[in-house]
Write a structure and sequence with these properties.
Blueprint: E1 25-28, E2 32-39, E3 48-54, E4 59-65, E5 70-84, E6 87-92, E7 96-99, E8 105-109, E9 115-122, H1 128-138, H2 145-149, H3 151-154, E10 157-158, H4 162-172
Antiparallel strand pairs: 1-2, 2-3, 3-9, 4-8, 4-10, 5-6, 5-7, 5-8, 5-9
Length: 173
C-alpha cells in the first residue's frame, strides 16, 4: 500500500502585483495614452503590461521584432490594424493576438477607428523606461535617435516591411 504525503505548495519566488487604476502611471502624447500597469524584473519571470488607447488614425509602432519576448495584444475596444510577418489584418474588440519572438510586427489604430488595447510582453524585461521614451519622442521632448540607440536594451529591433508601408500608403491614397 502506498501513502501520499500532503504538503503545502512551495513558497512563491515573487510577490503578487496589484496596480490600482488610480495609481497607474500615465504616458500620453498627442495621439495615444499608455497606462503603465505592471513591469517585473527578469529574475521574477519578466513581464510588462500596459494599456494603450489610440486616437482615430493614430500611429502605433512601426515594423519591429523582439528576440526574447512574445508580445500579446487584446483589443478592448475599437479596431487595431496589425502586421504579423508580411500579413496585414484588422483586429476588433475581443480579438487576441500573440506574436512570437523573431516575428516582424507593427500596429496602429485602424483607419477611421480608435483602438483600446491591452499589451503584454513575456518573458521580458523592465520596459516602462522604453514606453516613457516613446512618449517623450512623440511629444518632441527627446531625439528619435534615442529609440534606435535603445534597441538592444529593450529588445526592440526595427525592420523595413513593404507590406506595412503599402498598408499605410493605401490609407493615405
Amino acid at each position: 500500500m502506498t501513502t501520499t504525503k500532503n504538503t503545502a505548495p512551495a513558497a512563491p519566488t515573487a510577490a503578487p502585483v496589484l496596480t490600482r487604476c488610480a495609481e497607474a502611471e500615465i504616458c500620453a502624447d498627442p495621439s495615444s495614452t499608455m497606462t503603465l500597469l505592471a513591469d517585473s524584473a527578469p529574475e521574477q519571470g519578466g513581464f510588462t503590461v500596459y494599456r494603450s488607447t489610440f486616437a482615430a488614425g493614430a500611429a502605433g509602432a512601426p515594423a519591429h521584432f523582439h528576440t526574447r519576448a512574445w508580445e500579446l495584444f487584446f483589443v478592448i475596444g475599437g479596431s487595431l490594424r496589425v502586421l504579423v510577418g508580411e500579413e496585414v489584418t484588422v483586429l476588433g474588440a475581443g480579438d487576441f493576438l500573440a506574436v512570437p519572438p523573431h516575428t516582424p510586427h507593427a500596429f496602429a489604430a485602424a483607419p477611421g477607428s480608435e483602438a483600446d488595447v491591452l499589451c503584454v510582453f513575456t518573458p521580458g524585461m523592465e520596459r516602462f523606461d522604453y514606453l516613457r521614451l516613446l512618449g517623450q519622442v512623440m511629444r518632441g521632448e527627446s531625439d528619435p535617435g534615442a529609440i534606435a540607440a535603445s534597441s538592444e536594451r529593450f529588445d526592440n529591433h526595427y525592420v523595413d516591411s513593404p507590406a506595412w508601408r503599402a498598408a499605410l500608403a493605401g490609407e493615405n491614397a
